[in-house]
């Protein structure tokens, strides 16, 4: 009985050691994809920021009285916002749209070349 208990304990210890080695090998293999995923996460964060900026600018333009916000197209690339429209806007509307856009957190620059002035 004593020999069986020693054998069982030895087998258990060996099994746990082998499991730890296998786990360590698996952990080492999974580190490379994690590094890649971190790089992709940075791109996703940039995309999310640009999407957030576009949404916020559009919402602020639509809710501002005196600006045809629904007719203004907003695009953002790395914090640079481009405003354009097929509908003509006045010079003061264009200036107001630029000012509203510049107030948004994360906006690096504003291009309103695509806004047609009356």
Structure explained in plain terms:
By secondary structure, this protein is an alpha+beta fold. It has one domain (2-114). The chain is 63% helix and 15% strand. It has two helices and three strands, in the order αββαβ. It has a three-stranded mixed beta sheet with strand order 1-2-3. A hairpin with a 2-residue loop joins strand 1 and strand 2. The model has no long low-confidence stretch (mean pLDDT 78).
Write the layout of secondary structure elements.
Layout: H1 2-63, E1 72-77, E2 80-85, H2 91-102, E3 109-114
Parallel strand pairs: 2-3
Antiparallel strand pairs: 1-2
Give the helix tally.
2
Roughly how much helix do the residues carry, as a percent range? 55-70%
- What proportion of the residues form beta strands (DSSP E)? 15-25%
- Radius of gyration in whole Å, from Cα? 29 Å
| Element-by-element helix/strand order | HEEHE
Q: Mind describing the biggest β-sheet? A: 3 strands, mixed
Low-confidence stretches: none
By secondary-structure content and strand pairing, the structural class works out as: alpha+beta
Global geometry = elongated
């Amino acid at each position: 009985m004593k020999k069986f208990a020693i054998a069982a304990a030895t087998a258990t210890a060996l099994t746990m050691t082998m499991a730890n080695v296998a786990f360590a090998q698996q952990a080492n293999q999974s580190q490379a994809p994690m590094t890649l995923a971190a790089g992709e996460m940075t791109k996703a964060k940039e995309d999310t920021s640009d999407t957030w900026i576009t949404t916020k600018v559009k919402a602020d333009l639509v809710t501002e009285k005196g600006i045809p916000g629904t007719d203004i197209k907003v695009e953002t690339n790395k914090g640079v916002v481009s405003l354009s429209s097929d509908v003509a806007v006045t010079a003061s509307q264009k200036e107001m749209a630029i000012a509203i856009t510049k107030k948004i957190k994360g906006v690096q620059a504003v291009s309103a070349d695509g806004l047609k002035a009356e």
